[in-house]
Amino acid sequence: MGRVTERRKVIRIRDGAVSSRPDTLVAEEPLEIRLNGKPLAITMRTPGDDFALAAGFLVSEGVLAEQDDLQNIVYCAGATVDGSNTYNVVDVKTGPGVVIPDITLERNVYTTSSCGLCGKASLDAVRTTARWPIADTPPVRVDPELLATLPDRLRAAQRVFDRTGGLHAAALFSEDGELVDVREDVGRHNAVDKLVGRALQSGDLPLSRTTLLVSGRASFELAQKAVMAGIPVLAAVSAPSSLAVDLAAETGLTLVGFLRGSSMNVYAGEHRLALETAVATN
Questions:
Q1: Model confidence over 144-164: pLDDT tens digits?
Q2: Active site located where (predicted)?
Q3: Are 150 and 173 spatial neighbours (Cβ–Cβ below 8 Å)?
Q4: What pLDDT was estimated at residue 111?
Q5: Is residue 199 very low, low, confident or very high in pLDDT (cuts 50, 70, 90)?
Q6: Is there a single domain that holds both residue 41 and residue 162?
């Protein structure tokens, strides 16, 4: 299998002094996901947890929802012309009776890139395919003071980031702030897929009593993945996109951005936050 990190020579310049030294970089390789033998998607990822990544991706596509929906995942032998296995192609075989939705090229694009499709069609697609409507689940109450402690705890758990400085991370926390799981990847969306895929494999979906924290911004795609996994709270250390806010408002997702220290912006779903004072509006 591919390595999570690789070493490369770098010319280092510090205060005018020039030196040569090896540097540790995060690995980035393509992963092709096949569904029942048919090519479905290609994503650039950091090798590791590839089966979980594929499973989580298919949760966000509405293909998988329960542990029994997944029969097995294997690396495809003979992935190259000479027949060797690059460990960059996986085939997901669904369980008996799983209905495969019509996953069009258009939908495939926005779930494998970071840009996302814009417009009402994107929102409708998620709302109509979500297995566990967030608005219908028992409310989770989140203390803002507890929420404010999560970024530092996520950062402390990023082992590969410490060596490379080039990885995003996603973490699941329980209602009382316990770190449930954390995954790192060159792409935020892949890190989230790895979390969700591991939850599917262990039979823990829906994740209806958790908070998802992501490094960087909160895109539409990340909000979509949270909704499809039944996660009621999504927090990011940077800004959300406008479409992510629209999706959160549409589905009942609590969306928090700019979570830095004791400061944060709540863009939707403020009813889940234990606010001691009334929110002033202009």
A1: 999 999 999 988 877 655 554
A2: 115 (cysteine persulfide intermediate)
A3: yes
A4: 39
A5: very high
A6: no
DSSP 136: G
Query: Where residue 98 sits, what CATH number does that domain have?
Result: 3.10.20.10
DSSP codes, 62-92: TS--SGGGEEEEEEPS--STT----S-EEEE
Token pair recorded at residue 78: 């003979």
Catalytic residues: 115
Q: Does residue 141 share a domain with residue 119?
A: no
* Residue carrying the six token digits 């009813």: 271
Q: Which residue has the tokens 């990023």?
A: 158
Q: How many domains does the chain have?
A: 2
Mean pLDDT of 51-57: 97
Last residue of a domain, one of 98, 132, 166: 132
Q: What is the pLDDT of residue 2?
A: 53
Query: What pTM was computed for the model?
Result: 0.85
Give, in order, the Cα–Cα distances in Å from 103 to each of 59, 63, 65, 125.
Answer: 13, 9, 16, 11
Residues 6+ positions from 109 with CB-CB distance below 8 Å: 117
What is the domain range of residue 93?
29-132
Given 73, 99, 132, the domain boundary residue is: 132
Q: Which residues contact 38 (CB under 8 A, 6 or more apart)?
A: none
Is residue 60, in this structure, part of any structural domain at all? yes
pLDDT value, residue 160: 56
Residue 20 lies in a domain: no
Give domain status of residue 5, yes or no. Answer: no
Residue whose structure tokens are 């909160």? 218
| 18 within 8 A of 38, measured Cβ to Cβ | no
Lookup result for tokens 């219908």: 136
